[in-house]
Amino acid sequence: MQEIEIILIDYISTCDDQKNLVGHSLPVIQQYYKLLSGVVRVSVSASRAYARHMIVEYPLPFNTSPYQKRGLLSAVGTLKKLLNLMLLPKWSPNRYFFLVNNDINVFLMALLWRRRFLSKCFLMQYEDFENCHKSWADRIKRSLFLRTVHLFRAIFVSNPQIFERPGLTNKYFLPDFVFLKEKYLPFIEQRKRENYCLVIGTLNKDKDIAGVIRAFRKSTVPLIIAGRFQGTKDEEKLIIQESMGGQIQLKFAPLTTKEYFQLIANALVVLLPYKEKSYHTRTSGVMLEALFLETPVIAPKFGFFERMLQKGIGYTYNNLEEVPQIISHTKECDWEKIRTILREVRNEYNPDSVRNTILSAMGIGIK
Question: Taking the domain 181-349, which CATH number applies?
Answer without folding.
Answer: 3.40.50.2000
